[in-house]
Amino acid sequence: MTPPIELFRLLSCGVYVIGVTDGTQYNAFTAAWVMQVSFTPLLVALSINPHHRSYAMLKAGENFTVNVLGEEQRELARHFASPIADRLAKFPWRPGKTGAPILSQALAYLECRLEENYPAGDHRLILGRAVGGALLRPGEPLLYRDTDDMDGASRLFPTQF
User: Fold this and answer.
1) pTM to 2 decimals?
2) What's the gap between Cα 123 and its chain centre?
3) Is 91 in a helix, a strand, or coil?
């Protein structure tokens, strides 16, 4: 039987930097579990570990940005996945109209307001209403399958179903 990790790596998804703020603090983190879930209204789903410090900011501020990374930005994705305190310090960014960080070097971004927050196993499923966004430059998006085991997820998968 095929191990779950080999099958789940075939699920297509991009790599994003999620920007959050509670109005006084800012943070950003790398995420792959992001997708559109509705046309009317425009809704985006995001999966986040509730023990991540950004979750408390997202919950308090009720806004987030989805910064789309380009295929050449693996090191940027790795930086925002690292456990350093101020991940935004080294990169140019600006607050969007919701206040959440927009990375200057992203391909594109969406600004979202929190709509719903649901339990989802060891994560929380956040639904956000897209309230703005822009294409910042042309390019191809970075895909999760192309990041190898950058996030260490291979340690978390069960060896069988």
Assistant:
1) 0.90
2) 13
3) coil
